[in-house]
Amino acid sequence: MTKADILIVDDEANTLASLSRAFRLAGHEATVCDNAARALELAKSRPFDLILSDVVMPNRDGLALLEDLKNAGVAAPVVMMSGQAHIEMAVKATRLGALDFLEKPLSTDKLLLTVENALKLKRLEVENRDLRSRVGKHEIVWSGDAMRRVMAQIERVAASEARVCIYGETGTGKELVARTLHEKSARRGGPFVTLNCAAVPAELIESELFGHEKGSFTGAAQRHIGKFEQAHRGTLFLDEIGDMPLAMQAKLLRVLEEGEVERVGGDKSIPVDVRVLVATHRNLEDLVKEGKFRQDLFHRVYVFPLVLPPLRQRKEDIPVLLKHFAAQVCSQNGWKPVPFTAEAIESLQRYSWPGNVREMRNVVERLLLLAVSGEVDRSTVELALPEAQSGMPSGGEPGIGPLAPRVAQYEREAILAELQRQQHHITNTAKALGLERSHLYKKCQQLGIEMRAVRGTR
Ligand SMILES: Nc1ncnc2c1ncn2[C@@H]1O[C@H](COP(=O)(O)OP(=O)(O)OP(=O)(O)O)[C@@H](O)[C@H]1O
Ligand SMILES: [Mg+2]
Predict the structure, then answer these.
(1) Domain total for the chain?
(2) Which CATH number does the domain housing residue 360 bear?
(3) Distance (Å) from CA 177 to ligand 1 centroid
(4) Ligand 2 centroid to 167 CA: how many Å?
(5) What is the pLDDT of residues 356-369, one digit of tens each?
């Protein structure tokens, strides 16, 4: 049974003594208090699992205390008890948010059951909150045919034990897909462990994967459990497998064949039950040809290739992804939902998204911060992502090509930024930029900055 931390409030010393004894005998912790004012202080100072309060007390009574607790935002469930219980009192207590109403004299069984219910309720609330925070976080959002095909493949392989190799440019959602495969598999109750082979120095990768014993090399002050052992009965996601050094590839191959690992400096083999998923942004077949990736390992991990298309090749997904990230950012910050105008969505669909979905998530955050008018429109997009405008070089290298469009782009950015800063006050914007008002108008016309945005205010 779980131990509960209970606050008991009653003006009678006898009741306090007998209740606290009953709770302590049952293994709970009890704090006693003989007046409402002190009870409120205590409840605000630490999170109790349950507050049990008498109704009839001198000065502030139990119902007033209940009201104070709710007003103070105390989350602990409150159970009222009274020797003069009548139905109106019970109704009032329930309306004020009491979990239960007990009649005195109290039976120990009933009391302990109440504690158990309160604990169960708390557990459910925590679970609920956890579930709510996870909903949408690992959800793959899509709409077009390209991702429909990928989703169908995910469904097909998730339930199997097949080794999947996920291909995709940076930010296309490789890790998200790996996690989804794990969550849709029979291993979902087990751990999902990741290792980015490109991020670990070559000399540490063996110990990261297989672990090491204390003292096995300089700096190995403690025994370390490797990723394979951590992922036992679950899934191990090896990201950027193409960057794994050749010597490690041989060791990895052995583990995949034998299902056993040996810690660095250890002398016994430890059986591991792990499904391995790998990802890469490189072409493994090319790496094999260049002698940088072992052919035998390639055949082991390349059982089922899953290709994630870059965002520029699935523009139909852009509107739903924008909506998804906007909703996420707004709810995280407690902001009202911010809509995107059709024009804004269109220009974002024209952009080439070299950083793919990851870049989009960051851009959405910037767009929402800049959307002072309450919606993301074309001018917000121009400000946050000048490359997304039509006619402007998209995703090109800076410093390449004729000078004029680059100068125009710079001018545009500078004017839009200043307009934003001056809240579209034309005179102030012109002054800050060192231009005549009429000159600013002309520039805006030339650069295609919407006059609506310029004239719209003051
Ligand atoms: N289809 C999608 N729906 C919702 N969110 C997505 C989608 N694709 C990617 N994301 C989100 O975009 C971000 C980048 O995705 P992820 O880390 O999976 O990409 P990656 O391909 O592993 O990137 P990298 O190559 O940079 O490691 C994550 O926050 C992920 O949740
Ligand atoms: Mg990744």
Answers:
(1) 4
(2) 1.10.8.60
(3) 8
(4) 11
(5) 999 999 999 999 98
